[in-house]
Amino acid sequence: MSPPHRQSMAEIAQELGIHVITLYKWRKAWRLQGEVVPATQKDPEGWGPADKFTVVLETAGLNSTELGSYCRERGLFPKQVDRWRQAAQDANAQPLLTMAEQKDLERRHQADQREIKRLQQELRRKDKALAEARRC
Predict the structure, then answer these.
(1) What does the DSSP 8-state code read for residue 34?
(2) Per residue in 2-61, pLDDT tens?
(3) 8-state DSSP, 93
(4) d(Cα 1, Cα 36) in Å, to the nearest integer?
(5) What is the Cα–Cα distance from 76 to 120, expressed in whole angstroms?
(6) Closest residue by Cα to residue 6 from 40, 35, 57, 55
(7) pTM tops 0.70
(8) Is the N end or the C end of the chain the one with fewer CB atoms within 10 Å?
(9) Per-residue pLDDT tens for 119-129?
(10) Best CA proximity match to 38, nearest among 79, 80, 67
């Protein structure tokens, strides 16, 4: 299942004589334990964010030799891991809203919704008046 082989579940099941459902259960259990077992047989660039983040965490303390070995075992390139690490850092670079800011944002949203509703009612009233004026 894991890179660099990336065999399909059906191929592994047939090769080992294990039911496919059992393989899916094992993969799910490994993922819950934090193992890097991609959810699909896709190229590493197609992996989900959780798998990429797991790789970033596992390689955080590795030197370049250890990183190279890690990447060879999983069919990755060190540059991919570097890009994923940078993406994780960039994701946390944007400041989060404080509770007060969040509440203020919600209040403004509610006020905007009320204003939209009022304007829609006014538009309907004017459309009715215009339609009535055309009939006369």
Answers:
(1) T
(2) 555 667 778 888 888 888 888 888 878 877 776 665 555 556 677 778 888 888 998 999
(3) T
(4) 10
(5) 55
(6) 40
(7) no
(8) C
(9) 999 999 999 99
(10) 80
**Residue reference for tokens 């299942």:** 1
Digit-coded pLDDT (tens) for 84-102: 999 888 887 767 778 888 8
The torsion region of residue 3 among left (phi > 0), alpha (psi -120 to 50) and beta comes to beta
Looking at this protein, which amino acid is placed at residue 88? A
| Cβ atoms of 9 and 20 closer than 8 Å | yes
The first and second tokens of residue 99, run together, are 């509770």
Full DSSP string of 59-88: HTT--HHHHHHHHHHHT--HHHHHHHHHHH
Query: Residue 38 burial by CB count (10 A; 0-12/13-18/19+): exposed, middle or buried?
Result: buried
Q: Nearest CA to 73 among 23, 5, 121, 7? A: 5
Helix, coil or strand: residue 38: coil
